[in-house]
Amino acid sequence: MRVVIYLVIVLLAGCGEAPNESNTANDKSQTAKIYTVNYPLFWATQQLVADSAEVYFPAPADVDPAFWVPDLETLAAYQQADLIVLNGASYARWLSRVSLPNNRLLNTAADFSDQLIPMETEPLHSHGPQGDHSHGEQAFTVWLDLSLYAQQVSVLEQGLSRSVEVDAAALQARIQAWDAALIRLGQQMDGAPVFYSHPVYQYLDRAYGFDGLALHWEPGDYPSPQDWQQLVEMLPQHRGHLMLWEDEPLPETRARLATMGIEIAVFQPLGNRPAKGDFGSAMDANIETLRHYLEY
Amino acid sequence: MSGVFYLAWQYLRWHRWKASILVAAVTLVLYLPLGLQLVVEQTARDMNARADATPLLLGGRGSPLELVLNALYFSDQQPPVFDYGVVDELRNSALVDPIPLYSRYHSQQIPIVGTTLDYFAFRNLQIAQGRQLAMLGEAVLGISAAQSLGVGVGDYVVSSPESVFDIAGVYPLRMPVVGVLAASYSPDDGAIFVDLKTAWIIEGIGHGHQELTSPAAAGAVLKSEGDRIVANASLVQYNEITADNIDSFHFHGKNADLPLTAILPVPRSDKARVLIQGRYQAHDSLQLLQPRAVIKQLLDTVFAVQRYVLVAMGLVAVATTAVVLLVFLLSWRARRPEQDTLHRLGGSKAAILSLMLAEVVMVLATAAVLAALLVALTELFGGPLLKAVLL
Amino acid sequence: MIALRDLEFRYEQSSFALQLPQMQLESKEHVALIGPSGCGKTTLLNLLAGILLPHAGSVEVAGESVAALSDSQRRDFRIRKLGLVFQNFELLDYLSVRDNILLPLRIGSGLSVSPALQQRTEELAQRLGIADKLDRHPAQLSQGERQRVAVSRALLLQPTVILADEPTGNLDPANKFVVLDLLLDYAREEGATLLTVTHDHDLLDRFDRVLEFNALNAWSPG
């Protein structure tokens, strides 16, 4: 009898309902949420969507987004986004370490992957049947080649148009104007050697015909004696009179460079938010800085 | 009449072995056809539901059934692998949203399914405990998988090596369990989900190892020529991805060449579905199919077998019924002296007949109740049993 | 009381036939019926109990003309008015002693196992020395205990006529007197008429009267 009772209880407990429908991670809120991995794409997305979507770029203002790693809470926010805008070119190494909804990723460099510039950051090595390989990636400041930035915006426009109405004409016009201005400036440079304080200007260099060599100097640090020695050794073969900096260097650095006949021009890479203004005004300032150098 | 049932009950109690055998025989006669029908119908319903929830399936050209069973039900059948590059092809078509799957490995016979977060949204899988996959090397378990392995959030699962004796084979990867899914009453409950990249690491295509230029790896370096370093097999490769070593993990070769076992192409519209089917109809190395059609073929076979089995059961039922009737008749004959006693004591022929019939009724009623209970239990557990056999 | 007159009976598929011009027992009389084996003593008891119907003659038992009753009336008469004790006890193996005693109630129509009858069962068992055996089954009892169960069953509804067919036939010498004395004591106390068929001449002096079957002018070729 006891067995019968137990069986009846089991039956009643087992008459389970089908799982309830509930919100999924993919539930569309009324306003689309778009997350980006760097500031240029954040700014471009904002220009395109205005108020019709919420755009996020959660990296803190004082870090390089290329090397920033989001915490779990921020990562969860990315996972919930309706669209995640990627820079491509191995930007944001954290992307290869995390799980994301692939169908909501938008690789804005997908159309020009053959134009990406490789960087050898680690030695070639082999330790098995796979043969030689390197863990190095690609240069990632593609937006400094404004023609590539325009392609990124074009891909962005296509990706956004699935959920919001966008018109990229005004933004594309502005980017084309920057591109044209830099082409003219490059022609004016006429292949004159330049130095870069940091290896972040590869695409600028290639796109506009600059002949640049990169150092590894930080604006906030006075270069070490080895750094100065390296520059001195480069000068005979690369007589550059201009050094592009990500930010204003120390006065003493500027002064010493001046003694070597090298002028400073701040050309912000704009991977993250500028201290003043936005991407548009900062890019205007970059071009104006170069024009000022060439004219004077 | 209640006196008659009392006497019948006492008789059956006294001859409990005989009564039990009769009850068991009748129970089986009643239950087996019903149970079989229920199991098959339930299984068909579940399998069809799963197939209906998957409009399209793409895989390497080969057995459609193997592909469907592996991709939808995570069976052990291994369809041919193909390249991840197909995902990009599908995405670029703007017709479907592809969801890649790599289901090849197990942890103690629980299938490990490598995929992306899109899979969870597609299958409407909810996190019940812990959180969703976030970092490489993590695992989220279906509720049945978690119960079967006896693990929960904070524990670890380890992928099983493909061959204990193959020292060059797949190394076990130790993965922290970060989440357990809510029950979905589907094959997803019995699986371990990992990021696609984690599945490739289990395969050995991706790995993490000591920094070759670090002093700790010096013993593993065979030679170093300029920018090229050759290391030997003593180089420590990590079998667990942690915050300290995650940056060392990398993949060899291009992403597009990495292997998949299936893709779930989710069509953006009916027109898109038709278009994409047309594109892959005559592909020489891939097949795009509708799981419903494949499952229908499988179930048609099952139903055909079921019909034969039911006919056989019918014959057995007839034979069993005849034997049971014979037992009752022989018993009745053997109890003639008892019937005479009852008659002499004042029992009517009707009462005596009722006594005999009451025994039959009680056996049949008990068998019917047991058969009903078995049917109820079958409703609860029978489907998974048949699916386990089929898959 | 019991009265037979011009009784004639024969079995359909046998040459056995019974003819009895007359037999009478007074109310409360205790009579032993003796006769050679096969002469028809059991047949006579079955006729008196209404189990068999005569082809001719009258049978009156406890005021009822048994042959004139319908089948259901005879059955009811057997349960309520008669107490039947058989030589082979005729207990049901699968019933407990208690249920064997209560058996007539379970097969008779309109009867039920009331608390009063449950109480009477306990009392009869106590009186017949089998109170501690009520929950056992016949296979667990001795011959004497089984016959006491049969006697208890026969006396459950306080019959006015007790018909006992060789009640001590299968008992050992010690038990036969015990069982017979229990029957006789009950018959005296309750004022019941007792007709006992017996082969055992050791028991005859316990009865009020002994009837010889042949002396009844009964003729039964067989």
Coarse structural class of chain C:
alpha/beta
Any idea of the CATH class of chain C?
A: Alpha Beta
Order of helices and strands of chain A: HEHEHEEEHHEHEHEHEH
- CATH topology of chain C, by name, is Rossmann fold
The Cα radius of gyration of chain C reads 17 Å
Q: Strand fraction band of chain A?
A: 5-15%
Mean pLDDT of chain A: 85
Instruction: Give the biggest sheet of chain C.
Output: 5 strands, parallel
Strand content of chain C: 15-25%
Largest sheet of chain A: 4 strands, parallel
Mean pLDDT of chain C: 88
Number of domain modules of chain C: 1
CATH superfamily of chain C: P-loop containing nucleotide triphosphate hydrolases
CATH architecture of the largest domain in chain A: 3-Layer(aba) Sandwich
Order of strands side by side in the largest beta sheet of chain A?
2-1-3-4
Description:
The complex is a heterotrimer of chains A (296), B (391) and C (222). Chain A is α/β, with parallel strands linked by helices and 296 residues long. Chain A contains 9 helices and 9 strands. Helices cover 38% and strands 12% of the residues of chain A. In chain A, strand 6 (193-196), helix 6 and strand 7 form a beta-alpha-beta unit. The longest helix of chain A is centred in the middle third of the chain and has 21 residues, at 169-189. In chain B, a hairpin with a 2-residue loop joins strand 11 and strand 12. Chain B is elongated. The relative contact order of chain B is 0.19. Chain B contains 11 helices and 16 strands. Chain B has helices at 2-14, 16-52, 64-73, 85-92, 117-122, 143-149, 196-203, 270-280, 291-334, 336-345, 349-390; strands at residues 57-60, 82-83, 96-107, 110-115, 127-130, 139-141, 156-158, 174-181, 192-195, 206-207, 221-225, 228-231, 250-251, 259-260, 262-267, 286-289. Chain C has 222 residues and is an alpha/beta fold. Chain C has 7 helices and 9 strands; from the N terminus they run βββαββαβααααβαββ. Chain C is globular and about 45 Å long. The two termini of chain C are 29 Å apart. Strand 5 (124-126) of chain A pairs parallel with strand 12 (228-231) of chain B, so a sheet runs across the interface.
